[in-house]
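In this section we walk through a basic example: taking a raw amino acid sequence and producing a predicted 3D structure, encoded as discrete structure tokens. The instruction is simple. Fold the sequence below.
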Amino acid sequence: MLQDGGAHKSVWHSRGDAASKFCILCKNLFVQESQIVDEDGTNLLSCNVLKWGQLVKATNSDLRNTARYLERKAGTTPSLQFAQLQQSLGMTYHKHSLLLCRPLDPYVQPVDVYMHDWMHALFVDGVWNLVLYLLLESALQAGLKNIYSVYSNYIAQWKWLHRVQDAYLHKIFSDDRVHKHRAAKHIKMQASDGLSLVSVTALFITKVRCGCL
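The resulting token sequence is shown next.
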């Protein structure tokens, strides 16, 4: 099942990157901002995992157990605490969830069919948004204080294909938006904009010399 984040939330009731436990396929992976690893004390939970082998993979039974644990807690747990529980487990309780339908247990195996599409993993507040931010921040730290405006001006000079709404691409890096990117610690933009900028950014890196900056 090839799905984006919205479909995962609708079908499996995963909370996605809005949750402290953002991947329901990983038992030990949590976002760094949650600080849950600092509170854990058992070294069983992780943040900033870079290698596949460091992940503890969930099973189909694990996902069902999580959904059914929330089912047991629903209605008996105060609303605020229940919201925090869902946030920490990375799953939202819904009484009609597929994972709560016992007759479907032999047939519905979410771990076996669960899949992210690459577009969203890379370009929806994803890998590309972070890598581009780190690139520009590295230039700032190297003393290139006007790197955002130079990059914006470079983009503005391009003649784009008609399918690309080029009139605003360079504005993503305008002075009034730089502080938003830096506060978020990634470049905030639409996925299609990020995809359009990949090749242009590659040329910017390889062709624009530091002396021009």
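Looking at the output, two observations stand out. The chain has two domains: 2-116, 123-212. The two ends are 46 Å apart (CA to CA). In the next section we compare this with other chains.
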